[in-house]
Amino acid sequence: MLNTFSVLTPHLKFKNKFVSISNLAFKFHYRATFAILLVCTLLVTSRQYVGEHIRCITGGSIPEHVINTFCFFTTTFTVIKHFNETMLKDSSIPHPGVGHMMNEDPIKYHAYYQWVPFVLFLQALMFYAPYYIWKILEGSKIKNLVDGMRMVELSHYYNDNNSVTFDTKYTLRSKSEIENKIIKVQNAFKRHLIINNLWAVKLVFCEVLNMINVLIHVKFTNIFLGGRFYQLGLDFINEDFTGQMDVLDTIFPKVTKCHFHKYGPSGTIQKHDALCVMALNVINEKIFTFLWFWYLILIVVSIGALMWRIQTYLLHKRSTRFNELLFSFACSGILSQRDIEVITVNFKFSDWLFLYYLAKNMDAHLFKSLFRGVMTPINSEENTMTSKLIEEPHHSQYTEEN
User: Three-state SS string across the chain, please?
Assistant: First the structure.
């Protein structure tokens, strides 16, 4: 069983010093949901849990493998009037949805089971898509700044005056180059503040895309299951599962019918009525019932994430206490009250959000070094303006006296 899921291990590894450009709601979509749907895809394509996906009997001369293949790749059906638990208890019908039928009896065709693995795999890719788009739009800005500061910090422990390259990938800077490197990193951050004010807009766009994505999948799954997905979770909760038939049998029938036509000895068309055991629906019903509850959780989490983003937009320029609390989680004890006030007064929302993600990904002392270097010009300008305001009244008084 473990070998079946071995292909997922590259997606479940935890990396040290991983640079995160997403929040918890994002991870619910591109990590948790992506992995869940991949597991579901493996379950419905693996025969070691349910055996043959479909087994049919006709009572005729048709080979079993022929009728099995035919009924799996075409459509099976059930008779709607035979979804009757009373008739089942009275032994009037052998299975839910299976029994004698007249030409005018309405029937329900079932073809979705052929497409379940493809649909689940496509949904897995679609749930990863918003994060992939966000990675492209973000352009590795956070990662480049964080990696740059980490290499600068490592170079502080190297005492030689020459640079050293190791592993053909990383370079330890000499002491004479460290300060220049810090300035370059700080300038890169300053350039972001000047020319890339759409960073937050792109992030919010992808967060909205997550919300739209899950709603589209709920709608699509409902169409895929013949309009029965919307109520699936509620029906499952209300079902007591004590009778011979339950609500899941009407959506995922375990036994269906299939008609196979072939030419007889005289050249006439003969119809063979096959009874098919749908072993795969035992797995399908569990998967889609679980997905109903999971999608509900995703919708709640996505709405909560958007409400939180609105809160951050409204409060980042209005509440010093809000910024103090938020940055205390990202870099506890590093920023002073004066630093928080500078953030509240001087930063637009895109700059504020970018700074917050830097604080989340950097070691506290590295972030402090970067932040103080960037804030020094702002503090200097504020001090200059304050001095001018203090000097101007004295200058006016002197003029009046003269």
Answer: CHHHHHHHHHHCCCCCCCCCCCCHHHHHHHHHHHHHHHHHHHHHHCCCCCCCCCEEECCCCCCHHHHHHHHHHCCEEEEHHHCCHHHHHCCCCCECCECCCCCCCCEEEECHHHCHHHHHHHHHHHHHHHHHHHHHHHCCHHHHHHHHHHHHHHHCCCCCCCCEEECCCEEECCHHHHHHHHHHHHHHHHHHHHHCCCHHHHHHHHHHHHHHHHHHHHHHHHHHCCCCCCCHHHHHHHCCCCCCCCHHHHHCCCEEEEEEEEECCCCCEEEEEEEEECCHHHHHHHHHHHHHHHHHHHHHHHHHHHHHHHHHHHHCCCCHHHHHHHHHHHCCCCCCHHHHHHHHHHCCHHHHHHHHHHHHHCCHHHHHHHHHHHHHHHHHHHHHHHHHHHHHHHHHHHHHHC
Quick one: pLDDT at residue 37? 96
CA-based nearest residue to 17, from 173, 143, 110: 143
Please write the tens of the pLDDT for every residue from 159-214.
Answer: 455 554 544 455 555 555 656 666 666 666 666 665 566 889 999 999 999 999 99
Beta bridge partners of 57: 275
pLDDT in tens, 206-245: 999 999 999 999 999 999 998 999 999 999 998 887 777 8
At 368, list the tokens.
């402090």
Please name the residue that has the structure tokens 């000895």: 265
Tell me the per-residue pLDDT of 280-337, one tens digit each, with 9 for 90 and over. 888 899 999 999 999 999 999 999 999 999 999 999 888 899 988 988 888 877 788 8
CA 200 to chain centre: 19
Contact predicate 224/152, CB 8 Å? no
Q: Average per-residue pLDDT in the chain?
A: 79
pTM for this prediction: 0.79
Beta-strand pair 107-110/269-277: unpaired
